[in-house]
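The aim of this short unit is practical: by the end, you should be able to scan a pair of folded records and say something sensible about each. We start with the first protein, listed as its amino acid sequence and then its structure tokens.
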Amino acid sequence: MLSLTIWCCGVLLEALLLFRGFRAKLFLRYPNFYIYVLTLFLSDGLSYLLLHVLKVPSYDKWFWYSGFLILFLGCGIVLEIFRHVLSPYAGVEKLARVGGFAILGGVFCFAVLYPIFAPSDTVAKALYVRLQRDFLVVQAILLVGLLQLISYYGISMGKNLKGMILGYGQCVGTTVVIFALQAYIGRRFEPAWNLIQQISYLAALTIWVVNLWSYCANPVPEATIGVEGDYDRLVARTRNMVGAASTELVKVNRP
């Protein structure tokens, strides 16, 4: 009953967030973010239709593709944050964007092709969980690296971006911790895991609704990259960050 109540509240918050996004024309400013929320909203509706209306007994393929689509679009939020936060630093923003799209392309190809050649649905599900864990770790690394850049250069952000980072960052962090606990405790942690994830997502939606109710532009940067050496150090930091994320993602292909 509690799980269903949280799920219903989540759907209502998704609808409210989408309504405000269109009403305040935020969809045009943060397209990746709102496509992600729209996909979750449609996924929730279709899941309810399949389970409770059409009474579909099994939808493994739907689970795989919808899960990967949401995972894929979630990384789009990270790229969106990078684009807006690093927009005053065109070279670094381009480097981060290219590296992020390279990771996304690899994951997308893997997600489309693997279910076709997987020996069974059970194996596909197990690999999905593992890939979800590693891919969220990649996003966590990128977000932590971005926060280091923000702190190092004193980059100012508006209310919209702060809410986006806080909401999605706590979702990613919570899920990574949950995966670690699940690996340590085992399947008996699964009921608590599902509930914690639902609460975390509900908290993220609440943060987003509050902080993205209307458009709030980023302040003019107080710090700029002045000398060439400082710029080179920033590029090196970003390259190392993207390289670490790529290395973490490659682990999913290892036995």
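Turning to the second protein, read its sequence before its tokens, just as you did above.
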Amino acid sequence: MADPPLLKDLVDASSIAGIGEAIARVAPRFDIEAFTNSVFDDSWDERALKQRIRHVAVRIAEGLDGEYAEKLAILRRATGDLSVTGIPVWCFNDFVEEYGVGSPEVSLPALEEFTRLASSEFAVRPFIERYPQRMAAQMLEWAANDDPAVRRLASEGYRPRLPWGMGIPALKRDPTPVLAVLDLLRNDPDEVVRRSVANNLNDISKDHPDLVVAVLDRWGETTPASLRKHALRTLLKQGHVEAMELLGFAQNASVVVDGMKVSPPVGKVGESVSVEFRVRSRSERSERVMVDYAVVFQNSSGTGSRKVFKGVTTEVSAHDEIQFRRKISLQQMTTRRILPGIHTVEAQVNGVVHATVGFDVVE
């Protein structure tokens, strides 16, 4: 099976042609050939995804006559007959981010329109930083929009720690404006919007764990269980007691973990090993348990880098046991380099480590 294309390769000759043609239909003086040639310059292949998007946005700006508001009006009309969808259309949003932060009166309606084609979650963030009060009101307005893509923007664009996006230090310090928006969206009929609410809460939990638990406790059972669990995923991995209890996992689960081993006991970089253990109930009644495992990888500082991997959530009957087995990849990754030496695996039940075993890694 062929590998899926890189995201940056979705911004290709076909999508650039479609964008150029849509612009030229409403702005006949826009030179499609010159635009295309300027996009595919000698550095195109080396550019990452967001660099490509910004490069295309700049070339669009250079190819259009007039001031920012005039150019933006052309792009808004162009989207009415645009054959391109998805990631390549980010260049329209990025045009606003690059040139329009000083003109929110025309930029924000454009971002609302563009987000229906490709999310404006990145482009809206400089506006949040520059106009916090105005954007707090705008996000509440978007949260009440009829279009789920716009409602999602109200949550996703307001995340304090949006991946790939600029951080918002003020929201990390005080997420109160964000919570007002999430209150409106927590039971949204669209699952994608609810998923964004959960991701936003997970962001907030990294700076304000107890606040997120309190918010979800206040929302209670009227909020979908899947949202609560996804919102608490970081805290659950950390074994946050109140987060565990909110989802019905007792910290003092009456279990014992034994039979823990890693096979083979010596693994090679680039291959994998397996960890297995038993979780045995010592209780007179069934208990809900979340069984995870953590690997403490060797790192260059010698302190070890701990990574929790999700395992299984289940009911264990009185005096029953469950068998647990998972593979541990020792493949090199861009986000984690596997080094030779002793590594450690921990068996974690309801956030509490019950057993540990070591294994060696060699080149």
